[in-house]
Design goal:
The complex is a heterotrimer of chains A (235), B (595) and C (318).
Chain A (H helix, E strand, L loop, with lengths): L1 E10 L2 E11 L4 E5 L6 H9 L6 E6 L2 E2 L5 H4 L4 E4 L11 H8 L3 H5 L1 H11 L1 H5 L10 H13 L5 E5 L7 H18 L2 E6 L2 H7 L2 E6 L2 E7 H6 L1 H8 L2
Parallel strand pairs in A: 3-8, 3-9, 6-7, 7-8
Antiparallel strand pairs in A: 1-2, 1-4, 4-5, 9-10
Helix pairs in contact in A: 3-7
Chain B lengths: L10 H20 L3 H25 L9 H18 L3 H23 L4 H21 L5 E2 L17 H23 L1 H11 L1 H6 L4 H27 L1 E2 L1 H5 L1 H14 L5 H21 L6 H16 L4 H13 L31 E12 L2 E12 L3 E5 L6 H8 L7 E6 L2 E2 L5 H6 L2 E4 L11 H9 L6 H14 L15 H14 L4 E5 L7 H16 L3 E6 L2 H7 L2 E6 L2 E6 L1 H5 L2 H8 L2 H6 L1
Parallel strand pairs in B: 5-10, 5-11, 8-9, 9-10
Antiparallel strand pairs in B: 1-2, 3-4, 3-6, 6-7, 11-12
Chain C lengths: L2 H36 L6 H18 L7 H32 L10 H24 L14 E5 L7 E5 H23 L1 H11 L1 H6 L4 H23 L9 H15 L5 H21 L4 H16 L13
Antiparallel strand pairs in C: 1-2
Helix pairs in contact in C: 1-5, 1-8, 1-9, 1-10, 2-3, 2-4, 2-8, 2-9, 3-8, 5-6, 5-8, 6-8, 9-10, 9-11, 10-11
The chains are: A alpha/beta (235), B alpha/beta (595), C mainly alpha (318).
Chain lengths: 235, 595, 318
Amino acid sequence: MLEIEGLTVAYGGLAALREVSLAVGEGQFIAIVGPNGAGKTTLFRAISGTVAPLSGAIRYEGRDLLAVPPAGRAHLGIAHVPEGRQVFASLTVLENLEMGAYTAAGRSAWHQSLERIFTLFPVLAERRRQLAGTLSGGEQQMLAIGRGMASAPRLLMLDEPSMGLAPAVADLIFERIEELHRDGRLTVLLVEQRVAEALQSCDKGYVLETGRIVLEGPRQALLADDRVRRAYLGM
Amino acid sequence: MTMPGDRRGPGRELVVIAALAVAWVGLGLTVRDSYYQLMLTLVPIWALFGLSWNLASGYTGLVSFGHASFFGLGAYTVTLGLVRFGLTPWFGIPLGMLVGAVAGALIGYPTFRLRGHYFALAMLAYPLALLYLFEWLGYQEVPLPMQRQAPHWYMQFGDYRVYIVIAVLMLTLALLVSLAVERTRFGKSLLAIKQNEPAAEAAGIDTLYWKMRAIVLSGALAAAAGGLYAVVLLVVTPESVFGVLTSAQALIVALFGGVATLWGPVIGAAVLVPLSEALQAQLGNVLPGIQGVVYGAAIILVILLAPEGVYWRVRDWLTHRRAPLPPPAAAPALEASPERPAAVPPRRPAPGKAILSVEGLSKSFGGLRAVHEVGFVVEEGAISGIIGPNGAGKTTLFNLLNGFIRPDSGRVALRGRDLVGLKPNRVCRLGIGRTFQVVRAFPRMSALENALIGAYVAQPSDREALAAAAAALDRVGLGHRAGAIAAALTTKELRLMELARALAGQPRLLLMDEPLAGLGGGEIEELFAVIRGLAGSGITIVVIEHTMHAMVRLADRLVVLDHGQVIAEGEPAAITRDERVIEAYLGKKWAVLGA
Amino acid sequence: MTAGIFIETALQALVAGLMVGGIYGLMCVGLGLIFGVMRVINFAQGDFLMLGMYFTYYVVSVFGAFAFLGPAGAPIAGALCAGPVLFAGGWLLHRLLIARVTGTRAGVFGDAGQAQLILTLGVALILENGGLIAFGSTPQAVRTPLAWSAWQIPLFDSASSVLFVNKARAVSCMVSLAIGAALYWFTGRTRLGKALRAAADNPQAATYMGVDVDRAYGVAFGIGTGITAIAGGLVASFYPFQPYVGFDFVIIMYTGVVLGGMGSILGAFWGGMTIGLVQQLATLVLPLQLQNAAIFVVFLLVVQLRPQGFFGRSGERA
């Protein structure tokens, strides 16, 4: 579904990604783990088009994604739930979800999506008239995921959904993501620094370090690999 | 901005200034037509006004849309001094400069607190308020009375060419002042403010002080231009001296010719003033606003085609032509650095007494408790690590320590001296240097100049500062890249350069925010060697990192933050076995899954 | 002056302030939309106001269009027409110049804000002086019979004290309120309006939603200039103008927008209303020439003391 080959991205002479290649199959749950600064967010931004790569190719459902303007990529069924939530703070919860459904697919599936979002995150239904900026961190994360779902995507990209959340809230978020993947038959690409949660639910994982993929493999293999632990703790 | 060969004297510029002045006066003496004589007088006046704008705005990057305030105050001081008190412009112009300087201080102090758009808008409002004020006072149109007795005493000359000489003399003086500013820590500090104000402040530059000095000097020069303008044109109206077009003209001649160089306003005035005056004279009857259209078009073209001005564009073009391949912007082989840092000294002896103590430090943003009741002690001579996952509050903690942010509560003391409430430049002066997570370089300065900015705080003389800067570069192993422009350095070199800038201020305590971000494996080892070397020479070091494995090897002691609170503290080996730390890093389920 | 007469004068100024304030409010809403969505400071906004005035003048007084609406209706229709025409002008200006230094292409000039400021200053100089070439320097006015007539509302019980409500101002104010309300509905309820607010709030996230942010900026810039031009056309029926009139108003507009909290549409409207009131009430205590100086003083005080404005709630933007 999504294939990335030899992707290199640099900001002002600083290489953030070097020759990254990965593949996401239809319906798969792929996790990319790695410490902060490894280039995970940059990878997502390159897929969404808010940074331009130096070299490399991105193919999505057979077409050259780099030739599609950034705003056009959402219309192809790619939903990006960005790092740090980035909800529209000055819009209400419902308006945020409406913005998620800005694409044609999102609009036609609006009522089903809304029902699903509210079933998954009932708190959003309660607060639908509230400004998104007044939500708590966890609620904002739920809203950001809901906003991504509202576009009725085929590929859902989640950038560090656990960041800055209390462990219990993060657990809840991960459960919901798993549910989404399982019941919604959705392709999920997850970037996380919390290795355990990310690897627990994925089909396949990649470990990104200083802009390079240093390890990849199915879930069990990665969990058993001592190098993952060492990459984090140095022991 | 300036060339690496800055160590040479200002000889060449002096020669050029003198030659220009002589040529202009020579040209003026040969011209007989009074219209051309007026134009030859107006060019240096507007160039002078442009230079004054350049001092306050070109070097600092704080664009002022209100320099007409100073120009008009100068013009009205001279005019009203003569009309009301019979004061000769020979004294009126210096008095006007004093008024301009005071106005600069009065306007600058409150306005520099404003950021970005607010600064621009506020600066625009001052001259307009003055314009209405002077209209209300009844000074709609004030002619300078002809003085039949002793006209020369009143700066009134039958021979117009005298004005050319006076204008050129004043411009020359202003050029010399600008040259002096450009070549000393005054100008370098202003450029540093323009290129990265927080970095300048953290490197010990008292940014408010230099900005105030700049606007006071600028106000005086603008008032001089205004005073001379009144003397030459013999009539002053609020619109002509306080009007928006007047403010715009200062900005436009400087921007057109080139910002932050003393040649810019001269080039801009020499091109635009004759052009617009000639068009006005030829077409003024048919197209009454042609002058404004020319200025408007000029500034649009410059912004789109040469955003820093004609001078820089031409200079870039010439240097490219002369040297088709400029110094390699590409990384020189990292493995082959000719100047390796000194050999790694042995691990330091057991650390001594506390140098920095933090107690109960808290800071909230809105409802988010970014840093909550954080307390720890840094021991002299040690390498301490502050680690924690992303969003744990590490950078906020540094910003609290070096004065970027004021804590809600708590205490920070450097050897017993309370730091809370001090501005970053004061904290730096007391001996705390810092580097940033995303390198905050002065991108258009050379590596040496970057370090130089950091050296000023510890060195009273510019010469010693330069020596200290060079020494700091050598110390981190970057001496061979001293002349390279920061924007052309590699990530590793930038990190080292920023470190050198902090070192040049001779800190006792060094705060390093994620120095490893963006570095590859070998580069990390190199940086470690440098850091260990610094610690060996007695500098206490605190490093922020989120990846633990690197810190375990570097630090003597670790403080672990999560959700703004200290969750563990101690020897690295113990920290990596701490349950709470593993949970914070790898997630709660790791123990279950990974075990 | 007796207390009664003073109260009468004060009430008169208050009513004038409310009506002028309504129109200023509309001007500020136009500028506030541009600033709120794009964070762009447009020095040329006053000159679009001027263009709106001249457009109305030429269409109505010179070419006599809308004559069928009668002498009172034609100027209003002319002003409304200035909206779409200058929407196109603003959109083009954004497309050709502003977009080169803002939005996704920001950052050429170190601080992108400055490039855009200077660029709009250049546009302002050209429009103003080009206006001088095109329209001449003679002050003009759009003639409407409403300017010389007023509704008279008796005050107290005495027959002698009457409150005059100038019809030209009152009608202009009502039209302004209607357009302001329409814009409020547009940004709050329509898909495009919400997309503009989303692009203003977080351009990057808006891109992820599929919003073409540069295009949204162009639309916002066009609407902002169009709205201000309509306000200009409405002012033209009771305020004589010449090509340099723009700078008088640009400060008024910015004062209103800053008062309103820089970026909130409702706030900008109340900011403009406040300026109208300050300006008219200032005539009670200050000489006429200092009316505008009073606005600058208010402006400087607001910028210095409370740059976040008085009317904008932190949550409500654009």
